[in-house]
């Protein structure tokens, strides 16, 4: 329609925004799918990690948790974002690196919290000491002598 004064709905507005997938920050993927360097990428990113990383940057975004990337069909979720009206990022690459840094920090925090929770859970349990940790406890039955040939 030429000369239309129709206003866009929000879904049409989001359709014009850029897209981020968890696969874009996966260190195990090739540069065909990854948009940041391997040094900034994280291991096994998921939608929630990506969402938390984008939230930390403070840009306008829209969640689409049920969308799936064709190359990574078993991981669902993508985020659409817009850098318009945001003066903290001068380029999309700068934004990608900020999201990657935030994701790495969040992943480190989560790993430390999980390790602390596991340590707290183990604190009440007796620990095996010495050689052979984790093996079955020796029974009181005498061992049968081995036959010699």
Automatic annotation (TrEMBL):
This is Signal recognition particle, SRP19 subunit. It holds the Pfam family SRP19. Residues 114-149 are annotated as: Disordered. It comes from the Eukaryota. Keywords: Cytoplasm, Ribonucleoprotein, Signal recognition particle. Its main location: cytoplasm. The lineage of its organism: Eukaryota, Metamonada, Carpediemonas-like organisms, Carpediemonas. GO terms for cellular component: signal recognition particle, endoplasmic reticulum targeting. It is found in: Cytoplasm. One of its GO terms (biological process) is SRP-dependent cotranslational protein targeting to membrane, signal sequence recognition. Residues 114-130 have a biased composition (Low complexity). It comes from Carpediemonas membranifera. GO terms for molecular function: 7S RNA binding.
